[in-house]
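Morning. Coffee machine broken again, so started the prediction first thing and wrote up yesterday's gels while waiting. Chain of 172 residues, entered below exactly as on the submission form.
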Amino acid sequence: MQAIVIDAFSFCQLNERREGSVLIADLPRLSGESATQDGALAWSLTGGKDQLGHPQLTLAVRGQIQLMCQRCLTPFVFELDSESVLILAKDEDSADEIDALLDNDEVDVVVGSKTLNIIDLIEDEALLEIPQSPKHAVCPDDSLDSSAAPIDAEASKKASPFAVLKKINGRT
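Came back before lunch.
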């Protein structure tokens, strides 16, 4: 994996934009969460300023990731389509002040850097977007085959445990 390093503050000041793609296999933490290392994520990063003049990065990440369903333990495709806004601060104290000033849960305030690795940022974004416990919307059921004979409802009906008590008590 090749790192793409930028000066985040300069990137925002010059309203720069970069885009590209990165293989999932080149993202070690994301690969560990994926069922396979196949595929790539497309990304774009745009620099600018927010309404108050703070440096701002807008990161968009899109692609497909194979995740393992926690219900049926089979892989499924998770569509990743994320866009996040990051306000840059010079240090932790400034980040806390800006976060309190903005009071917006949609915007994250992070400490900027002159050596910000975009690939790490992309991987972080992807990891934040995948569900903690990934599941199919509806798990495929391989045990039911559409060509199988219809199930007899009476035959599949289980006897009630109370039916035995009725017989013992003489009520039938």
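The chain has one domain: 5-143. Going to sketch it on the whiteboard this afternoon.
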